[in-house]
Amino acid sequence: AQKVTQAQTEISVVEKEDVTLDCVYETRDTTYYLFWYKQPPSGELVFLIRRNSFDEQNEISGRYSWNFQKSTSSFNFTITASQVVDSAVYFCALSEGGATNKLIFGTGTLLAVQP
Amino acid sequence: DVKVTQSSRYLVKRTGEKVFLECVQDMDHENMFWYRQDPGLGLRLIYFSYDVKMKEKGDIPEGYSVSREKKERFSLILESASTNQTSMYLCASTRIGQGNSKNIQYFGAGTRLSVL
C-alpha cells in the first residue's frame, strides 16, 4: 500500500533559522511522483515542486531546497533563512503516476516562524 | 495561470440538509478531485472524475455523491448533511498527457463547512 509519513506535526523556529521538513514514503511502484505543497492560512494549497522517481537530483529554488533519496524513501524539504511568510502547513504527497493522477497526502507539518 | 474556483469559502448548514459544493476550473483539465481536510488526518480523497459523467470513489465516499455534467465543473453533494461532515473541503484539477504540468494538482481555496 502507498503511504506518506510526515512525522513532524509542528515545528517552531525563529526567523533566519534553517528548517528541514521530513517526508518518508512507501510504494511498490517503480514509477511515481513526489510533491510538496504549501498551505498558508488563507487555505489554498500551493504547488511547490514535483519530482519523478527516476530523477534523484536535488533541487534548489531560492531559499527552498529538496533532497530526494530513493535508498531511504525520503523527500525532505529545507527552507534556508526562514521568514515569517514561510509560516504555513506543508504537505508531502505521492502519486502513483497512472492516468488518474491521484495523490496520497501526508498529514502535514505546521511550520511557525517567529519574528 | 490555472484557476480553480470554489463557490463558497464558508458555509453553515443544518443537519439533514442537502448541500452542494461547486468547483469550476478554467484550464480544460480532464481530472477533478474532491478532498476533505481534517486536523491530524491530512487530505483524504472523497471522489474524483476523469471525464464528463465519469466518477470514481476515493477513500472516504460514504455520505457523499458527485456530479460532473460539464468538463469544467465538478460538484460535491452531501445528500443529508451530518455533524461529522463538518470539515474543510478542497477541490483540485489536473491534466493528463505529457508536459511539465502533467499530474500536478491545482487546488481551490477551499470551503469550510459547518453542519449544526
Please tell me the overall pLDDT of chain B: 92
Low-confidence regions of chain B: none
Q: Provide the structure class of chain B.
A: mainly beta
- How many helical stretches of chain A? 0
Tell me the quaternary state. Answer: heterodimer
- Give the chain pair forming the largest contact, with residue counts: A-B, 23 and 29 residues
Order of helices and strands of chain A: EEEEEEEEEEEE
Instruction: Report the mean per-residue pLDDT of chain A as an integer.
Output: 92
| Number of strand elements of chain B | 11
Q: What share of the residues of chain A does DSSP label as strand, in percent?
A: over 45%
Structure annotation, total helices of chain B: 0
Return residue spans of chain A where pLDDT drops below 50 for at least 5 consecutive residues. none
How does this structure look, described?
- The complex is a heterodimer of chains A (115) and B (116).
- Helices cover 0% and strands 52% of the residues of chain A.
- In chain A, β7 and β8 form a beta hairpin.
- With 115 residues, chain A is mainly β.
- Helix content of chain B is 0%, strand content 54%.
- Chain B is built from no helices and eleven strands.
- Chain B is globular, with a radius of gyration of 14 Å.
- Classes of the chains: A mainly beta (115), B mainly beta (116).
- Chains A and B meet through β5 and β6 of A and β4, β5, β9 and β10 of B.
